[in-house]
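Hello,

I think I submitted the 2-amino-3-ketobutyric acid job twice by accident. Can you confirm which output corresponds to this input? Input:
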Amino acid sequence: MKNILVVGSLGQLGSEIAIGLRRKYGSDNVVLTDIRDDVNLDLVQGGPFYKMDSRDGEKLLEVVKKHKIDTIYHLAAILSATAERNPQRAWDINMNGLITSLEVARQEKCAVFTPSSIGAFGPSTPKQYTPQDTIQRPTSIYGVSKVAGELLCDYYYHKYDVDTRGVRFPGVISNMTPPGGGTTDYAVDIYYAAVEKHHYECFLRSDTYLDMIYMPDAVKAAIQVMEANPDKLRHRNAFNIASMSFCPEEQAAYIRNLIPDFTIGYDIDPVKQAIADSWPDCLEDYAARVEWGWEPDYDLESMTEDMIRTIQARRG
Ligand code: AKB
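Support: Only one job matched these inputs. Its output is below.
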């Protein structure tokens, strides 16, 4: 029987991974924590939940002991665009939060899932079909914290035998909990604007290619990598996973298949554009496919159809 703890369970990624885990392992076996408790009440009230700061090691240890936790999903993080506004705070939350989970995992012998990101790459990384093992010199504080996080997780595995695993997430697109403060957030906002106003003003240039993934595939990856046979894992903490790569103009064209009068304009945010320009256009994900069977279900067309239909149905 698995007993899982999700740290940062009410964010965009956390809320849907928490739902996926509760469905799979049962609500009582998936304990949630977050810095707030005033959103996603179904999650807060649907099983064990603790309001706490991800950097509070004492409280985390208490919860882990009480619920006999064996696996921690550490999902609390400040995303790229927000991080650039206050780099010191982003470093504090991203790094001190992570090491708090790793320390508790070391003491209580838990496995740990930590998400890295396409943000762990920088302008000197090969841009096309970015290899699994390559140059990583990111220029954003978010990217710096992600590379440091990948290395820290490797360190805890080699030094303390903590079963640390993770993937490098592309921009995650979803329709339940809105993303907050990411460079890839435009690719979510565009669907809401398309349904509500038939127009979207995009903060990235029309030809900015980035890797993206639809939430059901992101949840699948996070659960699958933790269930993978450890004997088959040559990599551990930062598997490239690819699903789709597109630019705003292409995404708009797919939206027009369903909302023919949809228009897109561009009002570039220089900070977000600089971050996006420093990231790869598309990743190569051979290691994830071979080592634990990664395969996405969605492409741009099927995701667009699902996003638009879901948002339209909610709006009545
Ligand atoms: C962001 O844009 O900061 C995130 C990411 C790609 O890690 N969505």
